[in-house]
Fold SCAN domain-containing protein 3-like.
Amino acid sequence: MSSASKKKIRQYSEEYLKFGFIPAIHDARLPFCLLCQQCLSNESIKPGRLEAHLKAKHKDQINSSLNYFQIVKKNDEKRATLKSLFTAHNVNINRTLEASYQISLLIAKSGKYHTIGEQLIKPSILTFVKTVFGKDDQDVKTMPLSNNTVSRRIDEMSKDVEIQLIEKLKARLFRCKWTSQH
């Protein structure tokens, strides 16, 4: 057997929190220091080594209680990650885009000029949000409702309806009843 296959993989234990360590997000077998945000090797998962890290790097926290590290852990879990920031931003973009399509559909159904989106609807929504929620909403300000955008969205939706109708008609069998007179 090679030395690599004999290598012991240690597992994280909850008791390591008293030294300020939690399991790393990307690999739960690695200890992650809550204080310096450093990920250590699996070989470091020994109480003595974790305590040595605490003494060497975080002297002022040596006598900290488990409760202190539990609070630090909760704060770490609440912090925004790069992924969560992008996810939240994408959700807002998708909602804004969906709202733009829904408003374009309402404009089409009303038979009004397409410029009403930017001239009346968007300012109305901004006024409502500012009055009711007390804030300026950037998502509303960036919602695409220009004449060209509304026209394009209406065209896209009508083409989609047409495609759906054609697909349904293709899937349906039509029978012609020919009479002897034809």
About this structure: The CA atoms of residues 86 and 126 lie 24 Å apart. The beta strands are 21-23, 31-33.
